[in-house]
Amino acid sequence: MDYKFIDDLTSDVMFEAYGKTLVELLENAATAMFSVICDIKNVSPLQEIKINISEDSEDAILHRWLCELLTQSDIHNMFFSKFEASINGQYGISGIAQGEPISPKKSGTVVKGVTYYGFKLEKTNNGYKARVAIDI
Fold first, then answer.
1. Which residues, in sequence order, are CB contacts of 44 under 8 Å at separation 6+?
2. Alpha-carbon distance 48 to 50, whole Å?
3. pLDDT tens digit sequence for 83-114
4. Which of 64, 80, 109, 130 could be disulfide-bonded to 99 (CB atoms 3.0-4.6 Å)?
5. Which of 122, 120, 98, 126 is nearest to 15 (CA)?
6. Is the Cβ–Cβ distance between 131 and 6 less than 8 Å?
7. Nearest 5°: CA angle at 4, between 1 and 122?
8. Which among 111, 110, 27, 115 has a CA at the least distance from the CA of 63?
């Protein structure tokens, strides 16, 4: 399982994302978030946006990655459906988000931001697990 939604909030959406590696977790968390934003299965990876971030912890990387994806989605007026990330130094990530221009018929719920409510990243015996709440 790559991610699942949690019924904990009434005004926001919370999900857990999983990955054998931090990179896989980042990609799965992005997929979970954009499955709220758009009909992700029908968004084609026609254009790509490069993302480079650097933070001081794995927790901060996850939060910033998701925030940066939201920002780039707004700036470029795009829905994203495919994500690739790679480690760049100790706490840096280089990534690519692929998608297409926003279209009303592929719209989902507007996500305003990534919150810190219940935010958690942990290393498990199977890799990584994160809990993320997004403001809708």
1. 81, 99, 100
2. 7
3. 999 998 888 999 999 999 999 999 999 999 99
4. 80
5. 120
6. yes
7. 80
8. 115
Residues 44-78: tens digit of each pLDDT: 999 999 999 999 999 999 999 999 999 999 999 99
* Count: domains in the chain: 1
Tokens for 121? 């990243």
At 105 the three-state DSSP class reads: helix
Domain containing residue 97: 3-135
Mapped onto helix, strand or coil, the DSSP state of residue 128 is strand
Separation between Cα atoms, residue 82 and residue 52, nearest integer Å: 16
- Of how many residues is the chain composed? 136
Identity of the residue numbered 66 = L
- Sequence letter at residue 67: C
What's the DSSP call for residue 55?
Answer: -
Tell me the two tokens of residue 122: 């942990």
How many Å from the N-terminal Cα to the C-terminal Cα in the chain?
A: 24
User: Could you give the residue ranges of the DSSP H alpha helices within 38-121?
Assistant: 58-76
